[in-house]
Amino acid sequence: MAKEILVERDGRVAHLILNRPEVLNALNAEMATALRDAALALGEDPAVRCVVVRGAGEHFMAGGDIAWFRQLGERPADERRATIRALIGTVHEAIRLIRSMPKPVVASARGGCAGFGLSLLSACDLALVADKTTLSLAYCKIGASPDGGSTYSLPRAIGLKQTMALALLGDRVTPEQALSMGLVNEVVPVTELERRTQALAERLARGPRETLARTKQLVNQSLHASLADQLLAEQLCFVEGAGGDEFLEGVRAFMDKRAPDFG
Predict the structure, then answer these.
(1) Where does residue 57 fall: left (phi above 0), alpha (psi -120 to 50 degrees), or beta otherwise?
(2) Of 174, 191, 196, 204, which one's alpha carbon is 20 to 30 angstroms from that of 110?
């Protein structure tokens, strides 16, 4: 794995670590490729039951690497466009892999979370942030429109007006504001973030693997499905699960008044 992204395993939990702390984990072409490759590998690894996305050092991600953008600005316009087209194509594949990954993905953020960092956080299934985190979509501040699927995920999570404010103004949002608008799931003291994240990830990893995968698929597809299609999908998923071991174990554990063991 490239050094821009680290993967650390703790039992059935894998930590995908954005690893450019000297520049607040800012995104460049090498990190984009490494992020995509890591997302692909973790999604296909049956030993991994939950993925945590976090930043090395004191920050989650400050967005794109401005110094790299400045160097890019010295090239002809057509070359700039071609380079950016390739970069965004790569990170968009990473976002697609995260959203479709058949296991829960948890963002754990502290410090700065801006630009593509916020897009990445929004692509994760759950998000925990430390109480001193600053969040901003920020793209408009450098004369760029949003990417990373943020204009897809944010309107669905927090509504059109809230998204417009984030995207058009680029203002910072406090963790408490992010929680109230539905952008994150939980705000915790920075000293508790690692412990709380690991506890949540381990709880998810103990869950019924196939059931959680189907549940994630159902919730995500509901964003563009009709009621009739969604009802049918729910039926098909429940029927499929009812024929499996997870359903049997869950029912038996409930009747026996014990915690289920989903393997």
Answers:
(1) left
(2) 204
